[in-house]
Amino acid sequence: MKIDGNSIRPGNILEYKNRLWVVTKIQHTQPGKGGAYMQLEMKDIQSGTKMNERFRSSETVERVRLDQKDYQFLFAEGDLLTFMDNETFDQINLDKAMVGEQIVFLQEGMKVMVQLYEEKPVGIELPEQVVLTITEADPVVKGQTAASSYKPAILENGVRIMVPPFIESGERVVVNTAEFSYVERAKDAK
Q1: What range does the domain containing 111 cover?
Q2: Structural domain ending residue among the three candidates 63, 81, 96
Q3: Positions in the chain short of pLDDT 50
Q4: Does the reported pTM lie above 0.90?
Q5: Which of 26, 33, 27, 29 is nearest to 10 (CA)?
Q6: 25, 47, 63 — which closes off a domain?
Q7: pLDDT at residue 73, rounded to an integer
Q8: How many domains does the chain have?
Q9: Is residue 34 in some structural domain?
Q10: How many Å apart are CA 124 and CA 111, to the nearest integer?
């Protein structure tokens, strides 16, 4: 299936230069001059080598059709992550590197989509959004609320994100796992 450059997300498996690559990191860049592009960090599924590549939003790339199966994350031990098949209750162990930098959002009991190529696990797709608690947030600077400025905050998993000035320490927020960004205040928040 062909997808355009700006539709690529972490966890996607791409066929590029006659090899299968898992996308581990993305960065959307819009330079002042020229068109926008997506900077990708990809890892070869067979050899494990990494490669950085740029795709313009007008370019298309082949996304590999994979079998997808629901699994539940159980626990991490060393460099291995243990997942359980929700239908058969079989357990599989996968390397942490397969998740990439999104591993900081992996929580016990979380349902994930394990991607299989010829019945072999090749990637993991986390939920698009997770709810986490802010453990540390800078206080609001007087007069700062008039501008649409954001302030730094630290999540319970140690990730630093930018949040609106009205978000305080202890609040629960929805975070985009692909972009490491604030989405909204969690619905269960007071």
Answers
A1: 67-125
A2: 63
A3: 190
A4: no
A5: 26
A6: 63
A7: 95
A8: 3
A9: yes
A10: 10
